[in-house]
Specification:
Mean pLDDT: 86
Helix content: 55-70%
Largest sheet: 2 strands, antiparallel
Distance between the termini: 36 Å
Number of strands: 2
Number of helices: 7
Strand content: 5-15%
Order of helices and strands: HHHEHHHEH
Radius of gyration: 21 Å
Shape: globular
Low-confidence stretches: 3-9
């Protein structure tokens, strides 16, 4: 058995798979929810200090739910518009681009964020395209005109790290 050609070892520029996208989404939900919970706790503390008695906001409060979903919208739309990736996507080396390979526009980021819940409807059938299509685009990608690719070339990064100059005094 022969080793694969060097060019085949890199996934950079290839369409991202379901596992990478799901893991990035899970990281994003965890990170964004954690930030939101800390912000609510801080707001609760400040409100308690100002009014002089205990203030409590629960998850069942409709205002808290609306603010949470508004926060998620801003988190995803801004991240995709600004850099093409969220925190979770950056950790896993994937990025959102326009379907033609250009950077995603702010409009595409907003449309993609608004269409994301549609992919969850009907038992997640909007995600079937990630598994079945060659370009691995979910329903929200098709609606927004975007695609998700691998952006980080682990092999090239490792080679750059190994090839860097040694510090003086090292052998």
């Amino acid at each position: 058995m022969t080793a694969p050609p060097v060019a085949r070892l890199s996934f950079q520029g290839r369409f991202a798979g379901a596992a990478s996208r799901l893991a990035a989404y899970a990281i994003d939900i965890g990170a964004s929810t954690g930030v939101f919970v800390l912000a609510v706790a801080g707001g609760t503390f400040v409100a308690s200090v100002i009014v002089g008695h205990s203030v409590s906001w629960s998850r069942t409060n409709i205002i808290v739910e609306i603010v949470y979903f508004l926060w998620l919208f801003i988190y995803f739309a801004y991240s995709w518009a600004a850099s093409g990736k969220t925190f979770g996507m950056a950790m896993l080396g994937v990025r959102v681009l326009a379907a033609d390979g250009a950077d995603a526009t702010a409009r595409q980021a907003v449309v993609r964020t608004l269409a994301l819940p549609l992919s969850f409807l009907l038992l997640g059938l909007g995600f079937v395209g990630i598994v079945l299509q060659r370009d691995r685009r979910a329903l929200h990608d098709l609606i927004a005109g975007t695609a998700v690719i691998y952006d980080w070339d682990a092999r090239a990064a490792r080679l750059r790290f190994l090839a860097r100059d040694k510090l003086p005094g090292q052998s």
